[in-house]
Amino acid sequence: MPTDSLPRFENGGVVAQCRNCGGTVTRFSTTQVGGGYCTIQKELDFGDSLDFALIRCNGCGHGALAVLFADHLGNPPQLMSVHPQMPNIAVVPVDVPADLLAELREAEEVAGIGAFRAATALLRSTLEKTLKANGYTAGNLYNKIDAAAGDHVITAARKRQVHEDVRRIGNDVVHEDWRPVAEEEFAKAHDYVVWLLEDLYADRPTVVAELQTASRLDANGAPIS
Ligand SMILES: [Zn+2]
User: Helix 204-213 vs helix 183-201: angle between axes, to the nearest 10 degrees?
Assistant: First the structure.
């Protein structure tokens, strides 16, 4: 199923990513009672309503709540939101270590409830932990990014992206005055961290050999500090 326009209401059910199914796009069935959906309604003006419907993932069986707008003309309901909100979960290489994956997933989870400042700080953390795991242990994050680019393990473009849109924004969140972080800023930083993980883990044996040649990893693949 395509991942655009998610979540959506379709043929009497909800199509969405399920966090319990690892972010897989699945179908959630509504609970049917008699000829209609089992809902609690909030009546709006002009006979329209908000319908709160229990739904259940056909894959894993976990439940969720769909909020639907039903107009007084009897048109198909319009899906407003799903709770708990389903985070946008990126597909990453299978060789990404569990701790780095957990940090990325927590960033996605937090972004899923709209807390983009906290999510962006977690992306900065994912970036720094990723570089350390690959042998870039010296200095601050600025130095680590430059060292990885200096070894040509990441491209000049990726260096610029993670400097500007991950490290700098993450630092702003932690150290500077409060300001909102937009969803678009998070989404860009998220893309760049995911692409960095692809750079380093999609063809892991080749990258490990390069990092060993650059004296970043030892013969066992552990960081040389
Ligand atoms: Zn599921």
Answer: 80
In terms of residue numbers, what domain contains 138?
A: 98-213
| Cα 198 to middle of ligand 1, angstroms | 26
Q: Are residues 64 and 133 in the same domain?
A: no
pLDDT tens per residue, range 160-214? 999 999 999 999 999 999 999 999 999 999 999 999 999 999 999 999 999 999 9
**How remote is the CA of residue 214 from the centroid of ligand 1, in Å?**
43
Say yes or no: 102 and 208 in one domain: yes
Q: Would residue 182 count as lying in a domain?
A: yes
CA of 2 to the centre of ligand 1 (A): 17
| Residue whose structure tokens are 């400097």 | 163
The total of structural domains in the chain comes to: 2
Task: Report residue 95 as tokens.
Answer: 């060789």
Compute the distance from residue 60 Cα to the ligand 1 centre, in Å: 4
End-to-end CA distance of the chain: 45
